[in-house]
From TrEMBL:
InterPro entries linked: Endo/exonu/phosph_ase_sf
Source superkingdom: Eukaryota
Species of origin: Trema orientale
Record-level Gene Ontology MF annotations: endonuclease activity; exonuclease activity
Protein name listed in UniProt: Endonuclease/exonuclease/phosphatase
Keywords linked to the UniProt accession: Endonuclease, Exonuclease, Hydrolase, Nuclease
Length: 224
């Protein structure tokens, strides 16, 4: 697993430490709005993964509501996130179903990505045998609202069987942080309707809840 997290200076209070998860509370970004950050590495054995996912809500239940979960899940959320040239394994499918169920129960959504779709691969005798999207970032709706510009980028890595996954909470660094206030009078200008229609249709590669948050963010920037 290789992950990167672009936040700058971080004031973080450790909350939980175990073999498969490290979690803490971030106080510094943004100030006055604490949120929980958890780095995860899903167990390698399918049965252990199922037990881990079932225990996860309890591990994270006492952290602040805006929650981010980031890392190598050793599981997929959608069927098109895995490919193999050999027979599939029922145990892996079962543990992935447990992962999807727990994330739904906790209210996490996939933050999407830019870059390569498959970011892990396995070879046998130099021949590609299996590949999947095992590494990702998921977050609650509260966290998405706190960081509407957050972007996940998958970066090709030649020294590991996992690509590097980078999460930038500030999105485009060239943009300043400017408060936004919607003005009702804008609706009298037909161009505002064009802006909304254009920005609403330009956000790909995101799960439904994340896509809604991102569309609202793009519309806000388009109306500025």
């Amino acid at each position: 697993m290789k992950i990167g997290f672009t936040l700058g200076y971080v004031e973080l209070e450790p909350h939980h430490l175990s073999r498969n998860i490290i979690s803490g509370i971030v106080y510094s970004d943004p100030p006055g709005s604490p949120w929980s950050f958890s780095a995860v590495h899903g167990p390698l054995v399918a049965a252990d993964r199922r037990s881990f996912w079932h225990a996860l809500p309890g591990l994270l239940s006492h952290t602040p509501a805006p929650k981010l979960l980031f890392g190598d899940f050793n599981g997929i959320l959608q069927d098109d996130e895995s490919w193999t040239s050999g027979p599939s394994h029922g145990g892996s499918a079962s543990s992935s179903a447990a992962l999807r169920e727990r994330l739904n129960i906790m209210g996490y959504v996939d933050l999407g990505y830019s870059g390569p779709h498959f970011i892990w691969n396995r070879r046998r005798g130099g021949v590609l045998f299996q590949r999947a999207r095992l590494d990702r970032a998921v977050a609650t709706g509260e966290w998405c609202s706190l960081f509407p510009k957050a972007l996940v980028r998958n970066v090709a890595e030649t020294t590991s069987d996992h690509y590097l996954v980078v999460l930038n909470t500030n999105g485009d660094r060239g943009e300043g942080v400017t408060p936004f206030r919607f003005e009702a009078m804008w609706t009298l200008d037909i161009r505002s309707h064009w802006v909304v229609r254009h920005t609403w249709s330009m956000v790909p590669h995101f799960a439904h809840a994340k896509r809604l948050v991102r569309r609202i963010g793009e519309t806000r920037r388009g109306l500025k």
